């Protein structure tokens, strides 16, 4: 008599296993879903309308009939009795000689308030797909939580049916497990082009609604209205049956190389298993498992060995490929290729002579060739130089000489797309005497707009000038790019680039994620240019700005509360004294900036100290920032016998207007009540000298590594004008200077006359002032108040005590 | 045989370490900086720069490197070796993530 095989779950894995199973077994196949095997992967084309369900059925009634499989669809197995060797379902007990658990995975649901409301779905089976199809009427609003493979396929599918879709993703970029930030950025851009809104770094706080979903609320307060919410945040192996009957279960049902569980009569395969501490979420290894298990059941030998998997996203028109390992590790090297114009990004990860990972975006034609190199571990050292160009180059052996490629271009080939400048025109300009990039820019407009063609223009110049060519004298920002700070700033504005990965991709960064020198600069440029859109990246900030305190040589910090215009009160002084006592501050010092410094504070004490100082009405003095530091004042007309104006009052007003703003380098002000200049205003970044007739505003002083007197910008009659001009001038500096250049260095480059012109033009000045206030509406907040609420972030993650370590 | 050469100590959820950042684990033998890269790899190094004792946990993390916050020496997170012209070595510890939890390997 044939032996009885019971299979729980008619999914992708068990389907393949049954195809390979020999005739000796009498099979009973249970499935919780009211249908047999279909191609689950293809639910996405069904959702988007590119396929119908009928087209994705893999095994129909005829097939099961021919195999004489007893199908029990829509019947969930509720229990396994291993002693009696039966499984229990609504239809009673079914005996087995061998049992296969192939129950797949269950979607993970984040238990936020509202997660049980009608209208919240996951994405796993046909029912989910049909619910989403029904909800995706044109104009309907859908929110997808989770920007991984599944979430994005759900989003694209619903968008294709006309729904307005928003994707909320916890991490900084989409599909972070398969893609690096650059590829994630390109993907986001492609999805946005299809009308899908993407919200990264978004943590869901609650799903709102009375009888059904109405909206999704994020931790940052954003609310997205929603008629349907799809949670696609991950899966976990469906191990309940195995657990209940006492099989060995870790994260999945533990199996050996023969897919056998801890009970020799029970096998498991698919996403529900754990093999060698590894879980599986893509079908390729599951098919291998299926073949091994079929062989074992057929009485042959088989041994499961997991293979590398590659990922593709099934969204029509999005070309993405990732395989292997792309984490940073010693001895690993990256080869990066970017073609900003065509939205292409390729990154190969080499370890020694072998290719171990690949991320491709925009052009995935060579994906399988790279994948093969990864799997076979072939030595690629002899084709390393051209590896990134794919098999065509590897075979032909032609060296990719970039200069030769440019030389081969005909004179009418377009070099600068923005301004339609061809190669011949640049050659003519150079021959006519334009020997520098700036001269070529001025004469031809080539590379004068978005600037991404700068490298090409320089190559044309090099070819035309031969040895006479000297590359742009202004040095590149850092080793990660050939562009200068000025070019990067210009291109950020021209290209509407609003994130660090966007800049790195569109400007062809040569490294994967930048360095400690370019990241802080980019973070500043982005927040200065897009105050409302860009979100500050704390991790791209130097320690002092990240921790909102000055780090000291011994790793402690100093705390400087703001003392507006250098004026304080007995209450503030008492609070400072109390804080100094409470936190054992080793030194209390009056600074050169007219305020008090508490030095030597331990990092974990910072939040508590800040909250004490906050309670006394004090905020951070930003003594650590590339931003407004102090406004020094003198006593002025209120007290001094020589004072001409209320210099103290103006200083306080200026500090209240400017504090909290981030600037390319630190900004210090001084306001003196008369030309005796007791506030040392004439060596500050911006200084005001009060005179009988009004206010002399002068700029570009220095008293640090260089000493330099300020130069007069303008004299005005009223305090109101002085405030507006100083804020507008600060904004001019914020928008144009390169990172780490103090005002005096920047003015030396752009010229004081240019600054004067900008200030004299009322429209320009007013627009600058308005943009400054707009930025302040976001950034003028006290970081202490915000951070004091999260003391845990400032303490060690864990303290391992002596006992524990013994 | 097979002497136990290290103990794995749970130090907390990966989510507690910001990507491209670090957190400190305090031990009787000094602080250990646990780094998380942009690609969610974790590395553990002594939190003391061999130059003048700077807390490496406060440096900017780029790729699998960290730049010391005090005088900008750069260290490879894998080997703990100073990069470029600087010469120095930081002790490293094994670290890994399992089910979203970070474990540190310490000598028993
Ligand atoms: C606390 C203070 C010294 C004091 O005890 O008075 C101070 C302390 C530091 N200064 Fe200063 N400066 C202080 C007033 C000044 C002044 C005087 C002033 O502001 O009127 C100057 C000259 C004016 C100027 O800024 O040009 C000054 C010019 C500098 C410079 C040189 C800047 C330059 O562009 O040339 C640096 C280095 C830098 O910024 O790169 C610097 C850097 C530093 C740093 C932040 C060094 C660092 O990066 O770690 C010091 C932090 C020490 C610590 O452990 O906390 N400090 N520093 C003063 C804080 C003022 C405040 O209340 O915010
Ligand atoms: C929309 C979507 C797109 C995908 N795209 C891709 C892709 O492009 N590439 C890729 O490699 N992978 C993709 N996957 C993943 C792939 O589908 C899974 O890896 C694969 O289906 C897992 O196979 P399985 O047999 O382990 O589980 P499943 O296919 O999930 O089958 C398990 C079956 O067991 C049933 N079951 C569970 N418990 C019981 C019980 N107690 N009694 C009876 N029956 C039970 C379930 O109802 C289910 O039908 C995608 C998945 C989804 C949902
Ligand atoms: S002058 Fe400034 S930077 Fe130099 S030691 Fe004194 S506080 Fe530090
Ligand atoms: S202490 Fe680290 S570089 Fe000086």
Automatic annotation (TrEMBL), chain A:
The NADH-rubredoxin oxidoreductase C-terminal domain, residue ranges: 310-377
Binding locations of siroheme: 678
Binding residues annotated for [4Fe-4S] cluster, in chain numbering: 634, 640, 674, 678
Pathway: Nitrogen metabolism; nitrate reduction (assimilation)
Keywords for this protein: 2Fe-2S, 4Fe-4S, FAD, Flavoprotein, Heme, Iron, Iron-sulfur, Metal-binding, Nitrate assimilation, Oxidoreductase
Family under the similarity heading: Belongs to the nitrite and sulfite reductase 4Fe-4S domain family.
The protein's name in its UniProt record: NAD(P)/FAD-dependent oxidoreductase
Lineage: Bacteria, Pseudomonadati, Pseudomonadota, Alphaproteobacteria, Rhodobacterales
Automatic annotation (TrEMBL), chain B:
GO molecular function, one term: metal ion binding
Protein name stated in the entry: Nitrite reductase small subunit NirD
Every Rieske domain range: 9-104
Gene: nirD
InterPro entries: Rieske-like_NirD, Rieske_2Fe-2S, Rieske_2Fe-2S_sf
One annotated GO biological process: nitrate assimilation
CDD domains (alphabetical): Rieske_NirD_small_Bacillus (cd03530)
Coiled coil: none
Keywords for this protein: 2Fe-2S, Iron, Iron-sulfur, Metal-binding, Nitrate assimilation, Oxidoreductase
């Amino acid at each position: 008599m044939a032996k009885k095989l019971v299979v729980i779950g008619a999914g992708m894995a068990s389907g393949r296993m049954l195809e390979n199973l020999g005739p000796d077994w009498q099979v009973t196949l249970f499935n919780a879903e009211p249908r047999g095997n279909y191609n689950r992967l293809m639910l996405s084309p069904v959702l988007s309308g590119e396929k119908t369900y009928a087209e994705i059925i893999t095994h129909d009634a005829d097939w099961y009939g021919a195999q004489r499989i007893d199908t029990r669809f829509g019947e969930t197995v509720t229990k396994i009795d291993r002693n009696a060797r039966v499984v229990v379902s609504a239809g009673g007990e079914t005996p087995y000689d061998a049992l296969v658990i192939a129950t797949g995975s269950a979607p993970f649901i984040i238990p936020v308030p509202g997660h049980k409301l009608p209208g919240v779905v996951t994405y796993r089976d046909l029912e989910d797909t049909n619910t989403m199809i029904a909800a995706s009427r044109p104009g309907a609003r859908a929110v997808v939580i989770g920007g991984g493979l599944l979430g994005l396929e759900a989003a694209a599918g619903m968008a294709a049916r006309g729904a307005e879709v928003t994707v909320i993703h916890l991490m900084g970029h989409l599909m972070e497990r398969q893609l690096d930030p650059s590829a994630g950025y390109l993907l986001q851009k492609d999805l946005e082009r299809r009308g899908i809104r993407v919200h990264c770094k978004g943590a869901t706080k609650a799903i709102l609604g009375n009888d059904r979903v109405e909206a999704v609320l994020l931790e940052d307060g954003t609310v997205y209205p929603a008629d349907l919410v799809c949670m696609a945040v991950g899966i976990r192996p469906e191990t309940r049956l195995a657990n209940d009957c006492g099989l060995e279960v870790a994260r999945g049902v533990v199996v050996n190389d023969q897919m056998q569980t801890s009970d020799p009569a029970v096998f498991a395969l698919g996403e529900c298993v754990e093999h060698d501490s590894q879980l599986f979420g893509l079908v390729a290894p599951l098919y291998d498992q299926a073949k091994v298990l079929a062989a074992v059941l057929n009485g042959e030998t088989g041994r499961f060995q997991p293979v590398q998997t590659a990922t593709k996203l099934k969204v029509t028109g999005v070309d993405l490929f990732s395989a292997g390992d792309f984490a940073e590790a010693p001895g690993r090297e990256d080869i990066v290729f970017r073609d900003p114009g065509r939205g292409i990004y390729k990154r190969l990860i080499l370890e020694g002579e072998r290719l171990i990972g690949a991320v491709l975006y925009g052009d995935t034609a060579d994906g399988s060739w790279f994948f093969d190199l990864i799997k076979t571990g072939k030595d690629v050292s002899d084709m390393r130089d051209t590896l990134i160009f794919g098999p065509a180059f590897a075979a032909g052996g032609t060296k990719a000489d970039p200069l030769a490629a440019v030389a081969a271009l005909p004179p009418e080939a377009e070099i600068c797309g923005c301004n339609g400048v061809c190669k011949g025109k640049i050659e003519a300009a150079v021959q006519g005497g334009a020997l520098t990039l700036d001269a070529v820019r001025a004469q031809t407009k080539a590379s004068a707009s978005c600037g991404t063609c700068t490298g090409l223009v320089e190559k044309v110049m090099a070819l035309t000038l031969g040895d006479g060519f000297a590359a742009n004298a202004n040095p590149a920002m850092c080793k990660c790019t050939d562009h200068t700070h000025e070019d990067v700033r210009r291109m950020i504005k021209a290209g509407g680039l609003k994130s660090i990965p966007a800049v790195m991709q569109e400007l062809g960064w040569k490294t994967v994620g930048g360095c400690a020198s370019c990241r802080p600069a980019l973070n500043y440029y982005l927040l200065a240019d897009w105050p409302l859109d860009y979100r500050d990246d704390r991790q791209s900030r130097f320690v002092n700005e990240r921790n909102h305190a000055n780090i000291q040589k011994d790793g402690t910090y100093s705390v400087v509360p703001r003392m507006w215009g250098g004026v304080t009160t007995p209450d503030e002084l008492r609070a400072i004294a109390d804080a100094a006592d409470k936190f054992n501050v080793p030194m209390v010092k009056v600074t050169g900036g007219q305020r008090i410094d508490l030095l030597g504070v331990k990092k974990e004490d910072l939040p508590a100290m800040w909250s004490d100082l906050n309670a006394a009405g004090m905020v951070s003095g930003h003594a650590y920032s590339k931003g407004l530091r102090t406004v020094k004042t003198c006593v002025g007309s209120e007290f001094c016998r020589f004072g001409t104006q209320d210099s103290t009052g103006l200083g306080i007003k200026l500090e209240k207007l400017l504090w909290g703003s981030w600037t390319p380098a630190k900004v210090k002000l001084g306001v003196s009540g008369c030309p005796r200049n007791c506030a040392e205003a004439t060596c500050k970044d911006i200084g005001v000298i009060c005179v009988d007739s009004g206010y002399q505003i002068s700029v570009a002083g220095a008293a640090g590594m260089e000493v330099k007197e300020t130069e007069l910008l303008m004299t005005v009659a009223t305090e109101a004008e002085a405030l507006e001009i100083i804020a507008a001038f600060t904004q001019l500096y914020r928008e144009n200077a390169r990172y780490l250049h103090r005002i005096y260095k920047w003015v030396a480059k752009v010229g004081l006359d240019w600054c004067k012109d900008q200030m004299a033009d009322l429209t320009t000045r007013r627009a600058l002032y308005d943009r400054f206030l707009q930025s302040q509406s976001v950034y003028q907040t006290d970081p202490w108040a915000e951070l004091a609420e999260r003391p845990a972030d400032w303490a060690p993650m864990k303290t391992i005590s002596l006992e524990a370590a013994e | 045989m097979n002497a136990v050469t290290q103990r794995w100590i749970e130090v907390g959820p990966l989510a507690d370490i910001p990507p491209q950042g670090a957190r400190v684990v305090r031990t009787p033998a000094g602080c250990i900086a646990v780094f998380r890269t942009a690609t969610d790899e974790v590395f553990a190094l002594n939190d003391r720069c061999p130059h003048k004792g700077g807390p490496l946990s406060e440096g900017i993390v780029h790729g699998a490197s960290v730049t010391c916050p005090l005088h900008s020496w750069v260290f490879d997170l894998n080997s703990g070796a100073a990069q470029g012209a600087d010469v120095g070595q930081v002790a490293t510890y094994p670290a890994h993530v399992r089910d979203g939890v970070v474990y540190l390997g310490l000598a028993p």
